[in-house]
C-alpha cells in the first residue's frame, strides 16, 4: 500500500508508522442535521475553596490555589484564562456551604477556613472579604471570563440527623453579598445554589422539596436586585445525579425558575486507586457515563424543558485527583471523551475540576504552567463548534470519535481518541451524502465494532474534488512516547510557554482532504474539514 499521503505527518513523526501496525477504519459523518448543541462557553474550569491543609493519601496538593489565597497577580494565570476568550470559571466546591460573605452586616469577624473536627469536611466556617471579591472580579473582567458563583445553601438550616439538614435557607448574607456585586457592576453570568447537597449528599443533604422552595426565593432575589438589567441564570443543585431528587426539584421549583441543572462526575474512582489509568483506556468503562448524561437529559425533558444540563464539576478521580495520572497526557483521553459524550446529550457547560489546584488542575498548582489537559481543552474550545453531529464507524471500539460543526472556519471538526497502546488506525472519513445502501451494510453507529466494510477514499461532500482542498490536522502525543508525561506534543513539537509566558500558537498540519488520516497508538487527533458539506451546520 502506498502511503504518499502521510508525508506531511512523517516529517513530524519520523518513526510513527510501521505498515503492519495499523487497522483500517471508516467514519461516516451525518451532517444533514445536528443532534444536540453545547454553548459558546462549553469549556469551563473551576476554582475551589480548599485551603493548603486539605490533604489526601499523605499528600497536600492544594497549596495556594484557593479562591481565598490564589495569586491573582501571576501573569501566567491571566494569560491562561485569556487564551480561551472566553473561559467560563465556576467558583465553588465542597466548602462553599460553609462560606459566609464579609459584608457590613455579617456580625462576626471575617476569617478564613481553619481545621475543625466538628466542621463539615474537617474545616470551620470560612469568610471571603469584599476586598478579595473585588480582586477576583478585576482579573475576571480583565480576562473576559464568564463567571458562575456558587452560593452557600446551608446558611440558616439545622442538622436534623446524620448528614441530613432541614429548615429554610437564610438568604440575608447571600442577598447582601449579591447586592454588593450588583452595585459594583460585576458581570456574574450565573448564581449556583449549593454544592453536593442533592440526594443523599456528600457530607450534608437537603430534601428536594425545601431546596425547590429556596431556589424560588433565590430567583426572586435576583429579579429584585437586577431589575430591568440582564438577569444571571439560576443554577443548581451542583450534586451527584439522583433521578428522583432532580425530578422533584424541577417539579417543586416550577417553570422558568431553574435555568440549568448541574451535576458532578468523578467516575474514575479514588485518587489513590491503582486502576485509574486502566479505566481511562477501557472503552466500555468510559461509555458508562453516557447513561448519566442520557438520564439527566430525559429527566429535564419530562419535568423541566426550560432547564438545561450542565456538568458543574468533574475531576475524574476524586479526593484531589490522582497524582500519577490526573496531570498527565493520559488523562486527556478521559477528559476529551467526557466532553464528547456529554455534548451528545445536550450538555451546555462542562466544568473541569480544576483550573488550578489539586492534582487535576489544568495549570500546575505551583508554577501555573499548563498541564496537557489545558491544551486539550483549548483545542476543543477553538475547533469544536456548538452543533453536535452524529457519525457511524466501522472498526475497533478503541478508536473513539466525535463530530461537531466547525467553530471558526465552518465545515466539520472531528475528534478521534486512539486508546490502543499498540495499534494505529488509518481512518477514512466519508460524508453520508456519498454513501449508498450497499456500502452501509455492516456499519453501526456510536463506535460499534463491526467488520466487512472495505476502506474507501474519503471526500467531504457531493462536489467533485480537484485535489486542492485541504484539511487541518492537530495530532497530540506524549513526550518521549510516555503516556504519563507532563508535556504534550502537537504535531511532533512540544507545547511550551513562550519566553514571555504566552500560550504558544497551535498550528495544524495541512493535508489533502482526499487522504486517510493516521491516528497513532495512544494519540489524539483533532481534524477540521473547512469545506465539508453539512447542512445541519449551515442553519
UniProtKB/TrEMBL annotation:
* Keywords assigned: Glycoprotein, Hydrolase, Lysosome, Membrane, Secreted, Signal
Localization in the cell: Lysosome membrane; Secreted
What is this entry's stated membrane topology?
A: Peripheral membrane protein
One GO cellular-component annotation of the UniProt record comes to:
plant-type cell wall
What molecular function terms (GO) are annotated for this protein? beta-glucuronidase activity
Q: Which residues cross the membrane?
A: none
- Where does the UniProt entry say this protein principally localizes? membrane
**Listed Gene3D superfamilies:** Glycosidases
* Entry-linked Pfam families: Glyco_hydro_79n
Q: Give the signal peptide, or none.
A: 1-19
Family note: Belongs to the glycosyl hydrolase 79 family.
Role of this protein: Endoglycosidase which is a cell surface and extracellular matrix-degrading enzyme. Cleaves heparan sulfate proteoglycans (HSPGs) into heparan sulfate side chains and core proteoglycans.
Q: What is this protein called?
A: Heparanase-like protein 1
What is the protein's species of origin?
Answer: Oryza glaberrima (African rice)
Q: What is the lineage of its organism?
A: Eukaryota, Viridiplantae, Streptophyta, Embryophyta, Tracheophyta
Amino acid at each position: 500500500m502506498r502511503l504518499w499521503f502521510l508525508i506531511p505527518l512523517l516529517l513530524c513523526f519520523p518513526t510513527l508508522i510501521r505498515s503492519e501496525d495499523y487497522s483500517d477504519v471508516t467514519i461516516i459523518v451525518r451532517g444533514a442535521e445536528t443532534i444536540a448543541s453545547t454553548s459558546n462557553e462549553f469549556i469551563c474550569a473551576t476554582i475551589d475553596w480548599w485551603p493548603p491543609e486539605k490533604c489526601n493519601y499523605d499528600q497536600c496538593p492544594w497549596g495556594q490555589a484557593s479562591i481565598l489565597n490564589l495569586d491573582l497577580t501571576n501573569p501566567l494565570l491571566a494569560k491562561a484564562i485569556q487564551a480561551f476568550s472566553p473561559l467560563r470559571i465556576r467558583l465553588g466546591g465542597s466548602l462553599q456551604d460553609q462560606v459566609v460573605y464579609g459584608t457590613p452586616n455579617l456580625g462576626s469577624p471575617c476569617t478564613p477556613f481553619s481545621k475543625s473536627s466538628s466542621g463539615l469536611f474537617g474545616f470551620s466556617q470560612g469568610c471571603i472579604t469584599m476586598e478579595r471579591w473585588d480582586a477576583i472580579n478585576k482579573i475576571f473582567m480583565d480576562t473576559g471570563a464568564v463567571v458562575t458563583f456558587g452560593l452557600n445553601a446551608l446558611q440558616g438550616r439545622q442538622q436534623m440527623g446524620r448528614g441530613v439538614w432541614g429548615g429554610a435557607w437564610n438568604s440575608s448574607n447571600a442577598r447582601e453579598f449579591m447586592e454588593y456585586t450588583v452595585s459594583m457592576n460585576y458581570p456574574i453570568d450565573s448564581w449556583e445554589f449549593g454544592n453536593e447537597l442533592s440526594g443523599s449528599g456528600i457530607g450534608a443533604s437537603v430534601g428536594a422539596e425545601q431546596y425547590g422552595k429556596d431556589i424560588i426565593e433565590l430567583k426572586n432575589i435576583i429579579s429584585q436586585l437586577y431589575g430591568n438589567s440582564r438577569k444571571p441564570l439560576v443554577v443548581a443543585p451542583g450534586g451527584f445525579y439522583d433521578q428522583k431528587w432532580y425530578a422533584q426539584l424541577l417539579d417543586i421549583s416550577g417553570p422558568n425558575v431553574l435555568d440549568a441543572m448541574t451535576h458532578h462526575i468523578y467516575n474514575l474512582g479514588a485518587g489513590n486507586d491503582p486502576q485509574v489509568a486502566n479505566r481511562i483506556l477501557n472503552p466500555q468503562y468510559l461509555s458508562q457515563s453516557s447513561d448519566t448524561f442520557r438520564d439527566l437529559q430525559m429527566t429535564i425533558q419530562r419535568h423541566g424543558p426550560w432547564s438545561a444540563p450542565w456538568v458543574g464539576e468533574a475531576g475524574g478521580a476524586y479526593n484531589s485527583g490522582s497524582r500519577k495520572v490526573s496531570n498527565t497526557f493520559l488523562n486527556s483521553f478521559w477528559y476529551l471523551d467526557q466532553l464528547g459524550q456529554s455534548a451528545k446529550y445536550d450538555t451546555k457547560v462542562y466544568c473541569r475540576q480544576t483550573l488550578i489546584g489539586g492534582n487535576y488542575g489544568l495549570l500546575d498548582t505551583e508554577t501555573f504552567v499548563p498541564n496537557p489537559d489545558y491544551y486539550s481543552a483549548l483545542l476543543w474550545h477553538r475547533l469544536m463548534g456548538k452543533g453536535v453531529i452524529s457519525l457511524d464507524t466501522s472498526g475497533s471500539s478503541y478508536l473513539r470519535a466525535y463530530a461537531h460543526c466547525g467553530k471558526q472556519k465552518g465545515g466539520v471538526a472531528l475528534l478521534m481518541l486512539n486508546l490502543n497502546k499498540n495499534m494505529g488506525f488509518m481512518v477514512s472519513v466519508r460524508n453520508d451524502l456519498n454513501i449508498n445502501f450497499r456500502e452501509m451494510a455492516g456499519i453501526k453507529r456510536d463506535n460499534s465494532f463491526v467488520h466487512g466494510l472495505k476502506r474507501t477514499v474519503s471526500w467531504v461532500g457531493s462536489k467533485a474534488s480537484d485535489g486542492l482542498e485541504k484539511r487541518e490536522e492537530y495530532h497530540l502525543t506524549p513526550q518521549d512516547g510516555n503516556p504519563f508525561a507532563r508535556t504534550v506534543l502537537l504535531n511532533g513539537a512540544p507545547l511550551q510557554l513562550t519566553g514571555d509566558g504566552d500560550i504558544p500558537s497551535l498550528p495544524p498540519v495541512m493535508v489533502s482532504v482526499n487522504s486517510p488520516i493516521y491516528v497513532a497508538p495512544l494519540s489524539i487527533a483533532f481534524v477540521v474539514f473547512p469545506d465539508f458539506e453539512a447542512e445541519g451546520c449551515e442553519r
